[in-house]
Design goal:
This protein is of the alpha+beta class. It is built from 17 helices and 13 strands. A hairpin with a 3-residue loop joins β9 and β10.
Amino acid sequence: MIRFTAAAASLYLLTLAVVLPNAQQPDGQAIFRYDTFGDEQLWTNVLKMHEAIAKVDPATALSVGLKVDVQALPPALVGALRANQVNLADPAVTKQLLQLRAVVGVIGRFDAGGQLVSIGVTCALCHSTVDNSFTKGIGRRLDGWPNRDLDVGKIVALSPALPDSLKAEFQLWGPGKYDPRHHVFDGFNLRILNAPSQPVVIPPAYGLKGVEFETFTGDGPISYWNAYVGISQMGGHGNFSDSRIGLVISQPPPDLVTPQLPALLDYQLSLEAPDPPRGSFNQQAANRGRRLFNDEARCRTCHEPPRFTDVVDGPKREEPLLHSPGEVGAEPLYASKSATKRYRTTPLRGLWQHPPYFHDGHAADLLAVVNHYDQRLGLRLTAEQKADLVEYLKSL
């Protein structure tokens, strides 16, 4: 176990405060982008990530999927970047970007001498990206979009406090994946729940209005999962319990997560799935694909418009309608680690934006998804029908 020692207490007291710039009453967007929930207790006090990040140059940071918010940069720095006058191999530039709060989802704190003394992360680390409008990895924020470039495992493996065996396991995750059932942080220890690790793709946080159960396995309503991730995965200072998975995390006051959940939920529900880019699909083929989706391919049986999921169609609104792994042809191991042991029907809005598909990412593209169900359900679709169905999925 990795332990939070008493020697770090003074730093911990400094970092319990919520990190929100220029806000008296934080709104959901500010929470999503800037609130660490006091998770410096994990990232700084236990993992010592501030020591590792102080040595990381911007080019390396971009290579592992970290993003830079161009709108947080002063015009002079933007001009220098455009003129190739910024040394992206210099770790000092990384510290400058952190001081500007321009690194999406990463909050750094500095002492009076400019020394990086703490690191925390926010929801935006995994669930935001940028539009690459300046260059790859640098642009305007796209909240709710999964960061499929982000290699969380490789980043965490930079920690000087982790044993080599655990670093090696994290490094196997790969870009765009994370395992929320591998470990938990209880405020003091990093505890392994299930080994070996089995990462899943980072899901979008947009298009959730009317869905209500945001995880692959439908473990609970959106705020349930926000609490689970905020406390047990991000390392936020709060309390969480779920008897279904035998997990109880109890930390002394103040609870920095629970009070923020309502506003965070409101902001997430405001994030709509992005429309497909103009010209990115064949409209006539998509029209034919819509008919297939509703009729011969039987997709609508579970992917019911307008949410394109049946998860809220059960007899009780507060209980998700789920499917066994065998019913949908999904691997059973990840589900077995969840609270429900089953899978939710995935909403389809914005599919064009976030390959690969299925919880484990085993379908590289939408044709692979169609082929999966064609074989599983014995549909016997022709190649032309499959192509039309793909065009319709791209249009959602």
